[in-house]
Give the backbone structure.
Amino acid sequence: MKFWLSVSIALVALFATGCQEDTPTTPSPEEEQATKRLDPHSFARKKEAVIKDLDLNITVDFEQQVLTGVARYAIDVEPGVDQIHLDTRDLTIHHVTLNAGEDTTTFTLGEPVAHLGQELIIDITPTTTHINIAYTTSPDAAALQWLSPQQTAGKRHPFLFTQSQAILARTWIPIQDSPGIRFTYHATVQVPKGLMAVMSASNPTEVQPDGTYTFDMAQPIPSYLMALAVGDIRFGAVGPRTGVYAEPELLEASVYEFGDMENMLNQAEELYGAYAWDRYDVIVLPPSFPFGGMENPRLTFLTPTVIAGDRSLTSLIAHELAHSWSGNLVTNENWNDFWLNEGFTVYFEGRIMEALYGASYANMLRQLGYQDLQEEIETLADKGQLADTKLKLDLAGRDPDEGLTDIAYEKGALFLRHIESVVGRERFDAFLNNYFSTHAFQTMTTESFVTYLNSTLLADNEAWAEEVAAQEWIYGTGLPEGHPVVETDRFKRVEEQLAAWQQGQSANQLNTAGWTTHEWLHFLRNIPKDLTIEQMTALDEAFGFTESGNSEIVAVWLVLSINNDYEPAYDRLETFLVEVGRRKFLSPIYRALAATEKGMERARSIYRKARPNYHAVSYQSIDAILNWES
Ligand code: BES
Ligand code: ZN
């Protein structure tokens, strides 16, 4: 190993001095490394030495805004291998020891590489079973958001949460940060007295007086599911296996909002087999959480913007719960296979919603998803990124965040619905059940999925295989012809009311009785883009959009307000942008503002106040939209 490395270095030196008469066929060190790594977003060398179990012992320091402690790993090493490669980004490594801690060892930290951070190479011996890495995080660690009391609901205590997916776990733990590597974990976390700590593991339900918390995750998970939250957190039960963590101020409303969680869990098991993770709880985070939800095992992390008061946005819980099978149990091998996580999950989410609330309800969600997909394909085509409309992505050399588009979610789910329509629901469900149980706690590549599909569901039926057209769906751009289409009478009725309104019927005479959030979203998405101030005012007076407590509705209304320069919505615009950090809402709003000079000015003045409230995931995206230099 070391010998080969020095040979490669010598070769590079040879190149550098210009003496390359005979171009050697030996791979460059970069190529050599890339083939060993397998995952383009990790330095880990899965075939040489891997982590099997993590014992994490850290202290949460709110004053310095750092985590400090030791990550101790049990490792599996192939014979003859004398180094283990890990991922780090913005970490200070103090020292590394082997086994029980008695043997110190040498390590090197590579030069920073864009998106990936720094490779940590630790020297080991044939008898090494454990490595112990003492480290401290940086206050700028991208996974971590440190909130002041002012940024919480209670305003009295600070709050910390992590977001590890896709490749941010390495900013708070030195780790092999690839979804293709699984490990079990245990943790001891020291937090200030009075606060509670929770993780993607077995969790406390009471505050520990000494501020010391211990955790266990007995099932092997990939690093992107490592998660921690610390704050003034309380627990409330929903059902025997389900519950909610939230700040005390939000607990009651949260327990009500997610009252169907236990039913969802039971329903999901009925569809695709036993739940593998024991309990299913959620934590409602402060509004700066950059996503709707994050499927951290046993404990989904959630934005508070789903608390609408009427349980109308809980398909998000169905989504994160579904990840307990698609994603957490059967995991994409690397981020190019992301659709295996998200496409399956959107499909599964739809089935949970259908089972609980009926097909007409689920079809509204599917139709909205389909609209998102069409828009995404157009946007990517306009940007010249048609290759990103394939299900199988090529994200090497890029931030995997760029693969986070509606393609993986909605084209992925549509592909599965297409297969379902070819073979019939009963057969497809049996197939999915087997898929999850056969590959539980393993990783999956797109290619091995296709092989599995062809050798099980589609075996012996060429007509089906042809109709399914897996190659075209996966490796083709855009949408194949003959893809499934959803029809919903409920949206037809919305379209009738829209037509009536356009023909002059006044807003308050429209028949909107019994409309759910989804009908309203369809209404607002399909209203003409150019409206007069009188029309905006009349709509607002009739339906109270500006003051709506439903974040999804407000977010669409604000874009419409910006496009039509509707002044009365601007106060709400500002408070919304300053408070909410959910990127899905922020991006379209800032983009709408950035489209005009006046809007850009407003955007930049709001952003100056809002940016300090955002998690790195969000401010990095918005910085790009506003050409912001910090
Ligand atoms: N796992 C994702 C969030 C994610 C993906 C974070 C990639 C970082 C990188 C989560 O399950 C998700 O899809 N969240 C969606 C919810 C939704 C589609 C219902 C979100 O946050 O909007
Ligand atoms: Zn998801």
